[in-house]
Structures are given as structure tokens and as C-alpha cells.
Predict the 3D structure of the following.
Amino acid sequence: MVQPLVLISLVLALQLSCESAFAFRAVAVGSSPPSSAVKDLNGRDIPLTFGRRPVVLVFWRANQSFSLEALKDLEEIKKEFSPKGVEILAVAEGSEPLSSIQSALKTLGLTYPVYLDADRKAEERFGVIVFPSTGILGADGQLKFYLPSRNSNYREIIQARLKMELGVIKESEFEQQMKRLGEELGGERARAEDHLKRGLRLSRQGKPKEALLELRQALSLDREMIDANLGLGYVYLNLGEPKTAQNEFQAVLKQHPASPSAKLGIGICAVRLGDLDKGIGILQEAVEINPDPVQGYFELGHAYEKKGDLAKAMHAYKWAVRKLLQGRR
């Protein structure tokens, strides 16, 4: 029989690569996690111990909307399952400043414990590489289930799995629900892809306002579709809104820090916002990592021209033409 973990990873984590589709790489389902410690919001050491009751454990980031939405979902789950003995624990990623974490918590108003992984040891021992990462540990202290990231069915998936752990539903009923949710998510993804394709086509046809509507619709169906963020960034540039475009490119870079297209977009935004030196520096980085840097060299030439450095502008324009003649884009 297919393990529910495998089913959920294959069907519900479509947006993740094969390598990153595992929430806890260092802890196998059916095993106990290694001992680790975190800190409470007052800086006191707290051991992460399991085995007294079922626990939902989530690793999250304060600057990530998917994480904040997962925390809100878990607050609702706590209301339903806390009377049945289930405990919710949240561990904030250590790279975030405490002020950002406290600000997020103030907005959310959570009633379950939130801890800090200041040295990222707990994250390392669980093998967390995707945020948020959620796991369910049984009363025996073993990991029963995990879910990478957060999709539109996140709350329903966690609720169903907890019901199975508590004996409310059978494993076969849980798997039936996962199949139905997987089909729903697949349908959402397909519709999002259709809107993305239409949006990019309209953008190429010089219809930015129509493209904007399609790309926003794609993101409403699949908020992890970073190609839609990327498309929106360039649409906003075409509409003369570099500040708004910058936000879209930054959303891409949060997920993929080395994205050549997003770096190029950030560089263009900086130039259009008047920070020529910053823009030129970012554009230089973009053309170095981009295998098809025609637009990058063109934008670099434009930036140097605005700065009044015509020799460097001509040099960049010549590289753009050379790459174009090589069949690059």
C-alpha cells in the first residue's frame, strides 16, 4: 500500500522539486526525532520533547506569507483538537530578527506556544529545507506524517490526518480524502497554468492591462507560482510602476535567490527609480549568471547611457547585439 506520506508528497507538493519535497529530511516517518532545544520568547532554553500526546509541529518564517497562513490555520485546528489532547508547537526560523517574529505574532494573536530556533540547530536536526514544514508526532513520540510548504488544502489535510491519529477515521478514509484533495489541487494548478500562459502571451502582445488580470488570477489559484510573480514584475515595469514591480521580483528572489530574470528585473527597477549605481551593479550580476543575457546587456547599456558613460554604454549595447546574433534572447 502507498504510504500516506508518499501520496501527499507526490500529489500535493506539485510546486516543489523532487529534491525539496520532503519537509523533514533527517527524520523518517515511524522514527523519533533527535533531541533538540529551542528558546522561548524570553530567551529561556526549552527542550523539544515528544511522547506525551499527539503534537503538530511547524517550522515557519516570519517574512513569508505561506508560513503566516499556516500559523492561522493551526490556530483554528487548535480550537478543534486541543480538547482531544493535541498540542500545537511553532518554531520560528533563526535567521529572522526577533522584532520581525514578535511583530508577526502580535498580528496573529496565537494561543499556542511559539519558540525560536536562534542557532538553527532544531531546523538542522529535523532536516528542514522548506518553509513552512509541518509534522504530526504521535503519543509514542514518533513522526507519523509531514507536509512541505502550504497549499490551499493545508488545514483540511492536517485535520484529516489528526482524525486518523486519534482513531476517528480509518487509514483508507484518510487516503480517500487525500486523493480527492489531490485532484482538487491538480485542477487548481491546471487552471493557474492556463491563466499564466494567457498572461504571458498578452504581455508579449503589448497588452499589459489584460496581462495583469490573467497573471493575478494565476496567483490567486496558486500563490507559489513564481513565474506569475515574474511576469507581473515585467508587466508593472511596462506600466511604469517600478516600485510595484520590485515587490514581485523580490517575491521570486525569496524563493530562488539566484534567479537571473528576477535579478534583471530588480536591476531595471533600481535604474528606473534613479539609483543608477545600484542598478548597474545588479545588472552586472544578472548578465554574469544569465545564459541568455541580451536584455541584460541592453538594460546595462541604457543605465550607462543615463549615467553619461557613453563608452561603457556602447560596450554593453555591442554585447547585446553580439549575443543576439549568437541566437541568444
